[in-house]
Amino acid sequence: MSSIRQGINKVFRRQTYQVVKPSEHSDTSPDLAVELEKYRSRDHWNRFCERLLLSSLKSLTQSVLIECDKHGIEAQEWASGVEDELRFWWDGLSRNMLAAHHEDFRKEFLLDFPFQYEDSLPGNAEGHIEILDMGCALKPAVGRLLNQQKLDIIAADPLACAYNTLMDIYGLERGYDLVFGVAEKTADLFGQERFDFILAQNSIDHGYDPILSFEQICRALKVDGAARFQHFVNEAETQDYSGFHQWNIEKHSDSTLRVWNRGSSQVVDFSVYGCEVSVNEFVYERFKTEETVGINVQVKKVKSVV
Description:
This protein is of the alpha/beta class. The chain contains 10 helices and 12 strands. Helix 1 (2-20) crosses helix 5 (82-98) and helix 3 (42-70) packs antiparallel against helix 7 (160-169).
């Protein structure tokens, strides 16, 4: 929370003092100047930021729940993790914006770097290529440059309205539109057989129905389109079922997954959705301090399924 407080400090103080600093504005109210000066005190300022943070998180959470309600999503158990998720990403955003590399961090949001999954695109893909990053949080994990053209990338997340607000606070220019989307309604929201490529990283296990998510994403793929699912293995167990971490995903075979939690277990067979699949595990360095096992699922849609 300290980094969020520092972020509020940096943005709010800079904008406020530019307006009311007495040395530059002779008509500034003396009482207002005294009040602002009081907030220079660490204790006063920290208490102010704490109140602002808690109030902002509740307001942002409410905006997300209203958006979900508009789309008929009534998953209260899932919704209970919204505030924790917003706190996590706000903290990360603040840390990066306060760091020495903040200008490089800003550039990442423009997506002006090569698309990393060119080998997964259909061989006949040309002209208008559509990419979806589902559950991407603040920004997509893909670049938009491919063979001297800019790809059409749709970034979707159920918390989009709140994330857009946070990014606006820091004045982040984006090379994409972040829109509302839940994996469980991918094809319903964006269309059947629309996308050439869909990416989902550490997001399917955050939802309220991972089985439905896999089906909907496969339905949203064009024939010959591809999807990539990259997740930590059994993350709900690792996180002790806190926040959004209510589901575990693990390799069941070279072509199937097992999705489970404390109350249920189900095997995902992608052939039912008209797809061929390769499932692999890999060791991932997490937070630069520990290693964990990840799972990489490569999906190729070979036929339409009604």
